[in-house]
Design brief:
The chain has nine helices and six strands. The protein is of the alpha+beta class.
């Protein structure tokens, strides 16, 4: 607070709490200097941020972007580009400039997978059913039993796995997430259906399944029931693993040989 001499001495309590309490009025003692009334006490506003600091912040921001190779246009901000191809080219340029970050991250993820491969047989050392997630995030179950003689063995209607048998490695593939690819595939399939509406009769369930809105899965299941019989039959054969008789005989002979080998080892 700025004040003239002797203007607030009689009301110090009011002025001392002026910034915390909501006083209806702030009283003061009028004062004159050489016959001229002195203005009442007024609040002194805080000084603004110096212009040099603001300019230095902008320069630092540009230096950071230059150091990492990604500018605002690479993140989708408006720039001089107008066509979609030019915008995508600018974004790819930013991806190339930051490739070493993704590459080092992939190396770390792969090494983590190698460590897990070594630890998993030691942790899962008893028969159990574990929960797994598919590529698209769909949950599932897998039965494991360290007492089986082979890495995988069919028991009943499912497969049982022994994680301690065999040698495993880690394969890492980087790219868009499943959600991103699903959105891109939905947009591409929608354009194809607009160009050729007959595709809805043979692939309508796949097109709707790729869309992200409530009820899409239910509608896709209903559309799947309306597919042509030959497509439904082919899907059932694929799911059941149907194969030619000659190939089925070879597979059966191979499975019998494995069973005999397991019995001899036992």
């Amino acid at each position: 607070m700025g004040s003239g001499g002797g203007q607030v001495e009689n009301y110090e309590d009011e002025w001392a709490t002026a910034n915390t309490d909501n006083h209806s009025v702030l009283r003061y003692t009028p004062t004159s200097l050489n016959g001229t009334p002195v203005p009442p006490p007024q609040r002194i506003n805080a000084s603004d941020v110096p212009a040099g600091f603001a300019q230095d912040m902008q320069i630092s921001e540009h230096d950071i972007q230059g150091a990492i190779g990604m500018y605002a246009a690479s993140l989708g901000a408006p720039s001089n580009e107008r066509s979609g191809k030019a915008i995508m080219a600018r974004q790819r340029e930013g991806d190339v400039g930051t490739f070493h970050y993704h590459d080092n991250l992939n190396r770390a993820i792969r090494y983590c997978g190698i460590v897990l491969i070594d630890l998993i047989p030691k942790i899962y050392n008893s028969a159990r059913v574990i929960r797994i997630l598919g590529y698209d995030g769909t949950p599932g179950e897998a039965a494991i039993d360290p007492n089986t003689m082979s890495a995988s063995q069919k028991m009943g209607v499912g497969m049982v796995y022994n994680l301690g048998v065999g040698t495993y490695d880690v394969s890492l593939d980087t790219g868009p997430s499943y959600t991103t690819m699903r959105q891109e595939s939905a947009a591409a399939m929608t354009e194809m259906v607009q160009a050729n509406p007959a595709l809805m009769q043979v692939a309508g369930d796949l097109i709707v399944k790729a869309m992200d809105w409530p009820g899409a899965q239910e509608l896709a299941d209903r559309l799947k029931l309306t597919l042509p019989p030959e497509i439904i039959q082919a899907e059932m054969q694929k799911k059941q693993g149907t194969m030619p008789p000659e190939m089925a005989q070879i597979v059966n002979q191979f499975e019998q040989a494995l069973q005999q080998k397991d019995q001899l080892m036992a």
